Amino acid sequence: MKPLWGIRIFCAVVEQKSFVSAARQLGTSPSSATRALQALEEELGAMLLARSSKQVELTMAGEAYYPAARQMLDLQQQAEDELSQQAGAPRGLLRFSAPETLGRELLPAVLGRLADTHPGLRFEVLYSDSTLEPIRDKLDFSIRGAFPASSELIGHPLWHYRRHLYASPDYVARHGAPQSPSDLPQHRVVIHTAPRVLKAWNFVSDEQAISLNLNAWHRSNSGNGVLDAVRAGLGIARLGDWLAEPLAARGELVRLCPAFRIVSSHGGDPQMHAVFASRGMPRKARLLLDALRLEAQARGFGRHAPG
């Protein structure tokens, strides 16, 4: 167990005001966080937090204990930083998976710069649109555009994005552009067939919501296959704005029905996540994910296109 783990859990719950948020921040599960706090309270012989179904509050003992607990963690962090500097640069193999579309340009660019900065690192990337699991497939983490499906996994957010309709200028010239999502049954639609890809297309705008189950004119189990089919003029597809908007800016794609975006069945926009086992993530993995997140910010991911 990590040094001062129970204290770290306690401080995170106080600062996040939530076991779930604290667990996500520290890369563990809510049940593990609860057990760690209970062990700390048993060790101290005092209840530090009063829990209810709606909130978490400090007890009198917790209010007295928190300042000293926070100071212990700060001192530990200082000591770890000094040891890390003495230990030198990160080394070894990072084995992870990522969607195929990340391999077109974005991820190789980040890996190239990271390899120049930290030559002791090596990378093994499994590009796949299938769901690879960190525990089962012996990965340090798995990048995917969905939340974890198992309580043993933790999602580390990278960037938010939105999904819109896109086609090539050639397709629009030959077949016209739909004026509303309701027109899509009269068009050629390209669909991604990966198991966890949403089958219903749920459109929302400021004024209305439309849900469609469409028959595909072209299917592909590959994100790259879908994108290449759209660029070749085979039809219309839903694509993430982080992937499609740079191509639209260069005139290679056209965004259709711009007042609408495509959301989940719960009405939410997706996030790109790194999913890892609840036992934690190595420092070299966090180094890569931090670099990827910064690159995404620099490219404007999350600053959604108008509409």
Largest sheet: 5 strands, mixed
With helices defined by DSSP (H or I, 4 residues minimum), what is the helix count? 9
Query: Gap between N and C termini, in Å?
Result: 48 Å
- CATH domain topology of the largest domain: D-Maltodextrin-Binding Protein, domain 2
Low-confidence stretches: none
List the secondary-structure elements in sequence, H or E.
HHHEEHEHEEEEHEEEEHEHEEEH
What's the gyration radius in Å? 23 Å
- Beta-strand percent range: 15-25%
Strand order of the largest sheet: 4-3-5-15-6
Report helical residue fraction: 25-40%
CATH class of the largest domain: Alpha Beta
Question: What is the typical, i.e. mean, pLDDT?
Answer: 86
Secondary structure category: alpha+beta
How many domains is the backbone divided into? 3
Overall, the morphology is globular
List keywords for this structure.
307 residues, alpha+beta, Arc Repressor Mutant, subunit A, D-Maltodextrin-Binding Protein, domain 2, 3-stranded antiparallel sheet, 9 helices, 38% helix, 22% strand, globular
